[in-house]
Design brief:
34% strand, 287 residues, single chain, eleven-stranded antiparallel beta sheet
Length: 287
């Protein structure tokens, strides 16, 4: 698939910021579409920082409800899938406990993959990968254990992915209850893991035009009592990041600024389709 100029610029921004800060990507912006991708910073430094009352911040379940409700308000925008990712690193003893839990008969997990990869420059160092998976109620649960001697410093990286199928996209009360159970279970092995949620939705190109002309994503951020910070845009692509002070999860930049919502829209002019991606606190493509 050929990427637009805006996506290329956004990708370069991601690589640059991943070098500066290993878990995030900072994108730049401008408020109106141009035929060539351009950028402008729309930050509001007077709003930076955490709200005074940390106890009143909205947790993930409440944030999901707000995002899901906003998607449902647009009858021509249809949610196609979602993904929740938790990730973190831990010691060998905790990994052993986790593997014992996965091997228990009541876990329903099966060992899907086990690989050993040799580094070309350091053949004596071997990266070990184990992947566990299960299907439950139309959703997929996957746990990757990655032990890379060059990067881990005697720590194993653990990534838990919970994703929907095309048959199950509803994020209702039952979803919320299962989410809480999964989060508590994962936190019993990894304290304060990183967490990312991604929504994918689809519409016609009429939605893309509205997103540009009416600044739909900016309106959503205002509705959530936040504001837009940065935009990347060209004739077929739009990406906006923002900051919602009442949302608990956020990404801290090296310059002390913060954001916790990222939204993009990409139109296919030949097929009259627009693909929308929403990420909290950012769009996570690779784990």
């Amino acid at each position: 698939m050929v990427k637009s100029k805006g996506e290329i610029i956004a990708g370069i921004a991601i690589i640059f910021c991943l070098f500066l800060y290993p878990t995030i990507a900072q994108w730049t912006s401008m408020p109106h579409i141009m035929t060539v991708a351009q950028t402008m910073d729309t930050s509001h430094p007077e709003y930076e920082g955490s709200p005074e009352d940390e106890d009143n911040l909205l947790g993930t379940v409440d944030v999901v409800q707000q995002v899901d409700s906003m998607i449902n308000l647009h009858h021509d925008l249809h949610l196609t899938d979602w993904k929740v990712v938790w990730r973190g690193s831990t010691d060998t003893e905790t990994v052993t406990q986790l593997e014992q839990a996965l091997q228990a008969t009541d876990s329903s997990f099966t060992l899907d993959k086990e690989e050993q990869l040799t580094h070309q420059e350091h053949p004596e160092q071997i990266t070990e990968l184990k992947s566990w998976e299960k299907e439950v109620n139309g959703t997929t649960h996957k746990i990757n254990l990655i032990n890379d001697p060059q990067k881990s410093h005697h720590q194993t990286k653990i990534i838990y992915t919970w994703s929907s199928s095309d048959r199950v996209t509803v994020m209702d009360q039952a979803w919320a209850e299962e989410y809480v159970e999964l989060e508590q279970w994962f936190q019993s092995f990894i304290q304060e893991p990183e967490q990312f949620i991604t929504w994918h939705a689809q519409s016609t190109n009429a939605f893309f035009r509205q997103a540009i002309e009416q600044n739909i994503f900016g309106q959503w951020m205002t509705e959530w009592q936040g504001y837009e910070k940065q935009i990347v845009t060209d004739e077929n692509f739009l990406s906006q990041t923002g900051y919602i002070p009442t949302w608990e999860n956020r990404v801290q930049m090296t310059d002390d600024s913060q954001f916790n919502i990222q939204m993009s829209a990409r139109q296919n002019t030949l097929e009259d389709q627009t693909f929308v991606t929403i990420g909290y606190p950012l769009i996570l493509q690779e784990h």
